[in-house]
Amino acid sequence: MNQFIKFVFIGASLIGASGAAIAQQKLISAESEIAFISKQLGVPVSGKFKKFDAEVSFDPKKPEAAKVNFTVDLLSTDIGNSETETELKKPGWFNSAKVPAATFQSSSVKALGAGKFEFTGKLGMKGISQSVVVPITVTQSGGKSRVVGSFNLKRLDFKIGDGDWNDVSLVANEVVVNVNLALTGIPPL
Amino acid sequence: MNSNNTRYSGLAIAFHWLLALMICISFGVGLYMTSLAFSPQRLKLYNWHKWAGVTILVLSAARLLWRLTHRSPPLPLTMPAWQRAASHISHAALYVFFFAVPITGWLYSSAAGFPIVWFGIIPLPDLVEKNRELAETLKPFHWIAAYSLATVVVIHIAAALKHHFIDRDTVLLRMMPQSKKSSLS
């Protein structure tokens, strides 16, 4: 029993310590954007997520130690059209009424030089987890870091638009996700 | 007076009937598609409706150009002045709505965040930026313009039939494709 308490205590203090390290780095949500572009019959339809947050522990000089946990609230999807947004919440699409969070957890980070990095990790949506590679570019000024990146995902890999909507000639399988984030507390490049 | 200037030219007649058909189908599809629930079928119909609308807009511009550069065949001398005035007004109204209906649709589509890609190939510019409130404001205008056009079309058809079957004049025949039977000589 003692062993167990000791274990829990160490575990908690470890979480506390890493939490403190992460807390120094903050995503400035108000200055950040996560947007996507999907194509319907060749028509680019763009949307963005209004609510998202991240736990970031990233030293550009030690990319191998970087850790990023991203959470996007799919219920906050803004596509500019209420009817489509209502539809997206349904099981055939995001199923966000039941599984509101999309997550990204980095597993490895590679520095490509000149502020460019490659974040590899797991993207989770609708209870499905898929490996993605997100190339980003970091620029810094006045203590703030700007992170810009873009990656493609295949909606059917996550069963998004499953069933009636799985015809990719109607709604393209490829969805472009664009991230543009403002962060504080990232050590210099 | 020879038969060449008592009837519209072949091009004008082709414009008239082609656009009449396209406008009627687009109106019908518009009514039907808006009654559907969110579905792939509805998405297809919306896009076809938009492609048809842009085609109608382009053809109407060409047609207007033709109309402004060519004389229309004269109206029967038996027509009273008020009918001539009414005819001119209703034709002007038709042309206004030939443009107003597709343009209000395009405006709404832009504001709603669905750009038009003509036939799925040619991306057209957005007339306004994506804006939820603006989209809601614009939506009824397309509807109002379409119903206004439908109203003038009904008057137009009623007048044409009245000329043909009651007045028994040549007004409708001016716009009929030439055949052996309908020769106006």
What does the secondary structure layout of this molecule look like, with pairings?
The complex is a heterodimer of chains A (189) and B (185).
Chain A: H1 2-23, E1 26-27, E2 33-40, E3 43-49, E4 52-57, E5 67-73, E6 77-78, H2 82-88, E7 101-113, E8 116-125, E9 128-141, E10 144-154, E11 171-184
Antiparallel strand pairs in A: 1-11, 2-3, 2-11, 3-6, 4-5, 5-7, 7-8, 8-9, 9-10, 10-11
Chain B: H1 10-33, H2 40-69, H3 81-111, E1 117-118, E2 122-123, H4 132-167
Antiparallel strand pairs in B: 1-2
Helix pairs in contact in B: 1-2, 2-3, 3-4
Keywords, please?
heterodimer; A: 189 residues; alpha+beta; Lipocalin; 11-stranded antiparallel beta sheet; 2 helices; 11 strands; 15% helix; elongated; B: mainly alpha; two-stranded antiparallel sheet; 2 strands; 65% helix
Write up what this structure looks like.
The complex is a heterodimer of chains A (189) and B (185). By secondary structure, chain A is an alpha+beta fold. Chain A has one domain (27-184): Lipid/polyisoprenoid-binding, YceI-like (Lipocalin), CATH 2.40.128. Chain A contains 2 helices and 11 strands. In chain A, strands 1, 2, 3, 4, 5, 6, 7, 8, 9, 10 and 11 form an 11-stranded antiparallel β-sheet that branches. Chain A is elongated and about 50 Å long. The N and C termini of chain A lie far apart (47 Å). Chain B has 185 residues and is mainly alpha-helical. Chain B has one domain (3-175): Up-down Bundle (Fumarate Reductase Cytochrome B subunit), CATH 1.20.950. In chain B, strands 1-2 form a two-stranded antiparallel sheet. The longest helix of chain B is centred in the last third of the chain and has 36 residues, at 132-167. Chain B is elongated and about 55 Å long. The chains are: A alpha+beta (189), B mainly alpha (185). Chains A and B meet through strand 3 and helix 2 of A and helix 2 of B.
